[in-house]
Amino acid sequence: MSKYDVVVIGSGPAGYVAAIRAAQLGLKTACIEKARNKSDKLALGGTCLNVGCIPSKALLDSSYKYHEVKESYATHGIGTGDVTIDVPAMIERKDAVIAQMVGGIGGLFQANGVTSVEGTGKVLAGKKVEVTAADGSVSTLEAENIIIAAGSIPVAIPPAPVDQDIIVDSTGALEFQSIPGKLGVIGAGVIGLELGSVWSRLGSEVIVLEALESFLPAVDGQIAKEAAKVFKKQGLDIRLGARVTATKTSDGKVEVSYTHNDEEKTETFDKLIVCVGRKPMSSGLLSPDCGVNLDERGFIFVGDHCETDAAGIYAVGDIVRGPMLAHKGSEEGVMVAERIAGHKASMNYDCIPSVIYTHPEIAGVGKTEEQLKADGIAYKVGTFPFAAIGRAVAANDAVGMVKILAHEDTDRILGCHIIGASAADLVQQVVIAMEFGSSAEDIGLTVFGHPTLSEAVHEAALAVNGNAIHMPNRKKRK
């Protein structure tokens, strides 16, 4: 039986980062991974790298470049003639990006002395991990500490069973070899909007069916309202309150039945993407006597520092409470590794940014205006449009705004929400500010380069206190 200081189950962003950090701290570490790629080779990197964050961004970037050349270059005086898209080549490039990044993790494991173990891990009693290899052989690892980072899988819905041919999940939507003439998307969340955007840019007629009556309910309401207008203008047909009741495939198409505005309706699609959320991959992961407990939704129950109910066993990433975000899982992995090594590491869950990688991007951190109202917190607001930012106008990319929320009395920043070009990178400036307890005035007093998109953050912070320079300020209520 092999013995380790730390055994990590799962090599996604939470797992591989935890393993690397543990090894850096001098702990003998192994990382178990069961996934295999199209070539039947070990696929390090988890969902994010292989069938999630990275491949979807590769397609988002490819499709947006095509859209820009076709629709926007003429604005800059650039003539291109006929523009075509080679979908198989685009998918091949996406696969090459994945292969490069997977190889990078393997190299990092080797450089840091992490032992990579192929197979399916299961936590046993006594801090042991059973590993079942692809050929069915079973071995056991013993560890002083175990970090569970098994990740999550797409949620399935009975009315739309996935066949990965006509009805696909988010994984299948990354493998289309041609542009669907008419594409259905079930779910107007992050994944649905991103994947819908990819194929809409390439020419698909995209209809998004969302069961909820509100659009992006977790996003600040003002930003969500702006996003709905932008996506409608881009051609996405988003139908709220549309609940899918049945699907029927025939002749290479799928007929979707759904209720909308108290009416029974149908639509026929060439492809249908089901992306209604994800759930923890906890089935078969734990032996009944290992001491680790699950909540009613299948998440592993953990404390503030990701410790489970069993001493020496931790869980991080999508399989525990909190947002299912790669960067959240990675930082939990670092925190746990450092705590195992004796450091007093912690994590600020109030400063985790979230991003939707449509174009324009949507990003936020901290409280939304709706949450502040619900909590009875006195606040003030500053907004600034990209339409008043010279760099955005010059780039022909001036859609959207920056919104900053600060406490009415202390001026401390409580949240920032952005829709616009490079929102994911711009919001990070405010994440740093919030981490250090900054006020809106602190950002307002900071020198920002000109001309840059980040000036919108500066101006929004100034606007919080009625001091914006490049737009009229709201008159303060007496």
UniProtKB/TrEMBL annotation:
Q: Name one GO molecular function term.
A: dihydrolipoyl dehydrogenase (NADH) activity
What Gene3D superfamilies does the record tag this protein with?
3.30.390.30, FAD/NAD(P)-binding domain
Q: Does the keyword Hydrolase apply?
A: no
- Active site at H450 (proton acceptor)
Question: Where on this chain does FAD bind?
Answer: K57, G121, D318, M324, L325, A326, H327
Q: One GO cellular component from the entry? A: cytoplasm
Show the NCBIfam families listed in the entry: lipoamide_DH
Q: What is this protein called?
A: Dihydrolipoyl dehydrogenase
Organism from which the protein derives:
Zhongshania aliphaticivorans
